[in-house]
Amino acid sequence: MILSAVGNEDTPSPIFHGCFDWHSAVHGVYSLYAIHDRTGDDLYLEAAEQHARPDLVQDELRYMSTAIADEENPYGFAWLLALVAKQERVTGTPELRPLADFAAERVGGLVAGLDDDAGSARAANDAYGNLSWALLHLALWARHADDGALLELAQDATRRYLQSPEAEY
């Protein structure tokens, strides 16, 4: 069950621990918010809020600025964007917004720095560095945060690196 999956200490992350790695823990907390959103069962909201505590945000930002800043970009940071958007919709509070701002800056910076070869390589990557997951969540976050420039960056990169020339969308 998801509640036991996020209950252990296994990374030095102040907020996201309990799964095999940092991005899985982010996904786990996202899942708790999503299950609460779907069912209304406060058990899941309470479990999510035991991890995603506002008093830990600054410590988490410091942790996110360490080696994981490269390791979790773009996959883990894309999950973080999904988590914060879900948390804000469920709770109506922006308590985790600084985490999403950091993640959006990192993912956006990675995308902005791609040239054609790097973009094509990331589009073809079948692991965590895949560009499609990052661009999907960057665009969804940009819409949620009403950030037109970030949305344009995500859409332009999607057209440039992911859309096949013969496809009609």
Quick overview of this protein structure:
Helix content is 69%, strand content 0%. With 169 residues, it is mostly helical. The protein has one domain.
* Radius of gyration computed on alpha carbons: 16 Å
Order of helices and strands: HHHHHHHHHH
**In terms of structural class, how would the helical and strand content be classed?**
mainly alpha
Give the DSSP E fraction (strand runs of 2 or more residues). under 5%
- Total beta strand runs: 0
Overall pLDDT score: 92
DSSP helical segment count: 10
Uncertain spans: none
- Overall geometric form: globular
Distance between the termini: 39 Å
Helical content (DSSP H or I, runs of 4+):
55-70%
Question: What does this molecule look like?
Answer:
The chain is mainly alpha-helical. The protein has one domain. 69% of the residues lie in helices and 0% in strands. The chain is globular. It starts with a helix and ends in a 7-residue tail after the last helix. The mean pLDDT is 92.
Characteristics:
globular; about 170 residues; about 0% strand; mainly alpha
What are the SSEs and their pairings?
Layout: H1 2-5, H2 22-39, H3 42-51, H4 57-64, H5 68-71, H6 75-91, H7 97-112, H8 116-124, H9 131-145, H10 148-162
